[in-house]
Design a protein that fits this description.
- About 30% of the residues are buried.
- By secondary structure, this protein is mainly alpha-helical.
- Strands 1-2 form a two-stranded antiparallel sheet.
- It is built from two helices and two strands.
- The protein starts with a helix and ends in a 9-residue tail after the last helix.
- The protein binds zinc ion (ZN) (2 copies).
- One zinc ion binds near residues 36 and 46.
- One zinc ion binds near residues 7, 10, 31, 32 and 49.
Length: about 70
Amino acid sequence: MEPTPEGKRRYADDAGHYRPARIPETRLACRCTESCAHPCLGRCGCAACLAAFEDWDSFGLLHSQDTA
Ligand SMILES: [Zn+2]
Ligand SMILES: [Zn+2]
């Protein structure tokens, strides 16, 4: 599956792909469009953004502002 042009912008480090922290040998193509939310959280069905969201959530980064 090829990343969309928007996916290549969002994941420019790996040409539109995201590598999940748990399975870094896997490259997920971002299928987001320009109308996608920022951050997308994978609600459009994009596996790359869903995996990225799960990684951020498991690292606790989404909640880091609560303790600041
Ligand atoms: Zn995406
Ligand atoms: Zn999306």
